[in-house]
Specification:
- There is one protein chain.
- The protein has two domains: 5-187, no CATH class; 197-349, 2-Layer Sandwich (Alpha-Beta Plaits), CATH 3.30.70.270.
- It has eleven helices and seven strands.
- It has helices at residues 5-39, 48-70, 76-95, 108-118, 121-141, 148-187, 197-214, 228-235, 237-254, 278-294, 325-338, and strands spanning 218-225, 260-265, 268-274, 297-299, 302-304, 308-315, 344-346.
- A five-stranded mixed β-sheet has the order 2-3-1-6-7. The protein has a two-stranded antiparallel ribbon with strand order 4-5.
- Helix 8 (228-235) packs antiparallel against helix 9 (237-254) and helix 9 (237-254) runs antiparallel to helix 10.
- The two termini are 26 Å apart.
């Protein structure tokens, strides 16, 4: 409930853009190495014309694939396709430049490292198996009597590639785990486990886009603890932290799995409620207000009580401009606090809404 999926997806797109850019550089490096080999005096090339055609085709693929990436969301399966093309290109180059004795055999290392960093351990192991199969196929095409002994010798020669793939994949997996943890910490509030303010913008923008596209109602609801300062002053900041956690727990219990909830700052929370109109929002907000007020929380053996003020705005009931929902919700919350706290106010009840968001 209240996952960081959309925020994480935004972070993934940033990460994938960087990986796509790095992959493009590796592809150009691969092509450059092949060209240098082609131009080097004394290079063994079985079919020079075909070699040129393959280099041109690979260059066209690199340009086309990266242009395509630049105009669309990035996906790891697109990176996988690029590595498969690299394997096919390298295999052809190896076959055309001396087979299993080709000095270009080490070009497979570019694919191994790229795959480990971008695709993970399982994909890397599958790709090393694909490279091994291609390697054996090239050897079989060049030998009239391919024996078990020859196979064993080739596997010994190919073993360093498998070792590099395994070690690189392990390291990349550890890096990925650390990256996942970092993104989770960046998108969630440590105290409550809810989304943080950083994530709210991504989630709110996405909810607004979907509401416009499908003409669904959308409500933005804001909550503010009424007695955090009093609790801190009387019982200490540890009790104040428990008060905030208590309110977050009440929000979790009262809202749907499709709703988006974040700790906006201090003792203030924001909920983005897709497909919720005015009547339902009134019902939900009152339920939450009563739930918080009627359920005490424990602080070192002492039962403490709190309440929340609530303000919300619904599109299109309260405004035709969906981007004004946060402004109107904030103004409604301010009105609830001004009228005595522990109340619910919606934007339709405002007379002179504020124009700034706290």
């Amino acid at each position: 409930m209240f996952s960081t999926k959309t925020a994480a997806a935004g972070d993934d797109q940033v990460e994938l853009r960087g990986l796509v850019a790095s992959l493009a550089e590796i592809e150009w490096l691969l092509l450059l190495l092949v060209i240098l080999y082609y131009l080097a005096p004394g290079s063994v090339i079985l079919q020079p014309d075909a070699m040129v055609v393959s280099m041109i085709a690979f260059a066209v693929f690199v340009i086309g694939s990266n242009y395509f990436y630049a105009r669309n969301d990035k996906h790891r399966w697109k990176l996988a396709i690029s590595t498969w093309v690299m394997i096919a290109f390298i295999t052809w180059v190896i076959w055309n430049s001396g087979g299993v004795q080709s000095p270009l055999l080490n070009l497979y290392l570019l694919v191994i490292i790229t795959s480990a960093i971008t695709l993970g351990r399982l994909a890397t192991l599958l790709e090393i198996a694909l490279m091994g199969t291609a390697y054996i196929y090239v050897a079989m095409q060049q030998s009239d009597d391919f024996s078990l002994m020859e196979f064993s010798r080739l596997m010994v020669l190919f073993a360093p590639f498998m070792l590099v793939a395994w070690v690189t994949a392990l390291l990349a997996n550890d890096i990925q785990a650390g990256s996942t943890l970092f993104k989770s910490l960046a998108n969630t509030d440590e105290m409550t486990g809810l989304l943080n303010k950083r994530s709210l913008k991504l989630e709110l923008d996405r909810a607004m886009q979907l509401a416009r596209l499908h003409r669904h109602t959308l409500t933005v609801m804001m909550f503010d603890a009424d007695n955090l300062k009093q609790t801190n002053d009387t019982h200490g900041h540890a009790a104040g932290d428990k008060l905030i956690i208590h309110i977050a727990s009440m929000l979790r219990r009262s809202l749907r799995s499709s709703d988006i909830v974040c700790r906006y700052g201090g003792d203030e929370f924001v909920a983005v409620l897709p497909q919720m109109g005015l009547a339902k929002a009134v019902e939900i907000s009152e339920r939450i207000r009563k739930s918080v007020a009627q359920n005490s929380f424990d602080s070192d053996g002492v039962l403490l009580a709190t309440s929340v003020s609530v303000g919300f705005a619904t599109w299109p009931d309260h405004t035709n401009d969906i981007t004004q929902l946060m402004v109107l919700a904030d103004a409604s919350l301010y009105d609830s606090k001004h009228k005595g706290r522990n109340q619910v106010t919606h934007a339709g009840e405002l007379q002179s809404p504020r124009t700034n968001v706290v």
